[in-house]
Amino acid sequence: MTHGTDIQIVEARPEHISIIHAMIDDLAMHLQLGHERVATEQDLHNALFGPQPQAEVVLAYIDETAAGFALFYNNYSTFRGRCGLHLEDLYVRPQWRAHGIGKRLLSYLAWLTLQRGCSRLEWWVLGEDEKAIAFYEALGATAKEEWQIFRLRGEPLQALADATQR
Question: Model-level pTM greater than 0.85?
């Protein structure tokens, strides 16, 4: 069993792009959403290291092996008047699950949230991912079931954007 002290958390650098991209592919396949993943390594590089970075990644390493990652970005609470961090994806490679890596990644993000003066760390989880839900609840996280996520993309997004031209 790997202990927390054996896990090294590092901030992603440009040379990590191919590792991150490969783990995103693994995550998409794990969630049976491979058809949704269209991001290229260049897209990731632009989002993480371009002139206006849109997200950040931290990687969990065991020795020289990338075992998992967390991709996150800033959000803002109008009610609290402070920033927060939104965890977009947390992934641990299958051979490294149940070794404390997911908890270590979340622990690092909790620390970073407080270091940056943010008021919260939040994320979404698929309703059918019972293992993930149990893991998060064991850490003290609570589901915000009173909120529903809405999304516009594709033709409806274009139609709404076109409405501003009228």
Answer: yes
Residue in 61, 91, 108, 136 annotated catalytic: 136
pLDDT along the chain (166 residues), means of 10: 72 98 95 91 97 98 96 95 95 94 96 95 90 91 88 88 82
CA pair distance 106, 7, nearest whole angstrom: 13
Cβ burial 81-100 (10 Å sphere, 16+ → b, else e): eeebbbbebbbbbeebeebb
What is the rounded CA–CA span in Å between residue 139 and residue 121? 13
Active site residue 73: no
Residue 46 has phi, psi (to 5 degrees) of: -65, -45
Residue written as tokens 């040379």? 15
